Records
---
Amino acid sequence: MKRDKEETARRRQWVKRFMHSFADSRHWRNNTADIFSCSHSTIYSDIYILQVQEKYGNIRLYPTLAQRIYTKTRDKLTCQYCGIINPKNWALDHIICCLRGGVTEPYNMAFSCTSCNNKKGDFIWLPKNIQQLALENKEWAEKIEYLSRRESTKYIFPRIIK
C-alpha cells in the first residue's frame, strides 16, 4: 500500500513536470504510461487531477464513506435523474462537477445510475430532489441559479427526458 502511494506520487510529479508541454501529445502519454507500467487512462486521470488542483487548489474529488452513506439514505437508493429504484450499477454524482467549481459535499451529490451519470458528463442536470438540496445550503442554491442564468439551456436540465 505504501509502495503504491509512493509510486503514484512519483508518477504525478513526473506528469506535473511535463504536463503543460506535452499533455496534448499522445506519444508522450503512451511513453509515460510505459515508463510507469500503468494504463493510459491512469495518465489521463493524473492530468485531470493535476489540472483541477491547479485551478481550484487541493480539493477532495471523491466523497468520504460518511458522505456516501448519507447521500444514499437521503436519496433512498433512487436515481435522482431517471427515477430507477435501487439500480444494479450506481454512482454518486457531483451535480456541479469539480471543473465547474463544485465541491464534494452532500448538498452537491446525487445518487444516480451509472447510465445517467455517464450521459451527464460535466453538464449540470438538476436532480429531482433539488428543493431539498437547496434548503441544505443556500449559497449552493444561489450558485445553481446563477449558473442556470449564465449557461445555455443545453447545460442545465430540470431532469432527463427519456
---
Amino acid sequence: MDRYIFLDIDGVLNGDPEYSMLRKALRQEGLIPYKGQILDLPPEHRRKEYRLALISVEMMDRLNRLIAATGAKIILSTTWRNPDECWGFDAGDLLREAGLRGEIIGKTPRKMSLDSRGAEIALKIQEMGLDQNQYIILDDDFYTRDARKITGHKNRWIRTSEAEGLTERHLQQALELMGHA
C-alpha cells in the first residue's frame, strides 16, 4: 500500500531559530529594517540561499528518516507550493537542494473557494481515494484540523509547532501512525 505525507514547511522543517537567524543576518546586511520581517525583504534581494536558510538540517534529517522507514511519498500542502509565495522559486527544487531524499508526487490544490489548508488537503485525499491508513499530515496550522472534519479520518494530523518544528516526538508519532514504530 502506498503511503503519503502531506507536508507543510514553515513550522515543520523550520522553527523560530531559523527565522531568527535569517532575520538577524538580513538586518545586519541592511536589507530589512530592525523591526521588519523576512517578508519585508525587497524583491530584488530575494535570493534562493535565504529560502534555503529557513530549512533546518535536523528537521530535514527527521523527515528523511520517516521517508526511509515508511517509503512515503510527499504531497506539498505548504504555502511554499505556490511560487508566488516562495519568491518565485519551486518548493520541490528547494527541498531537494536542502537534502530531501524522498519523492514529491504533487501538491494540494489552491482553491479560493475552500476556506482552509485543511479543506485543500481533504479535497486531495478524496481525489486520490486515500483511506486513513495511507497518509499523515505534518503541519502546524490550526485549520489543518478541517481535513479531519471533512474526511472523517481520525488522528492523521501531527501538529508541529511554529517554535520547534518537527521534533523527535513528532517523528515517533508519525512512525506509529504509519505502522513503523
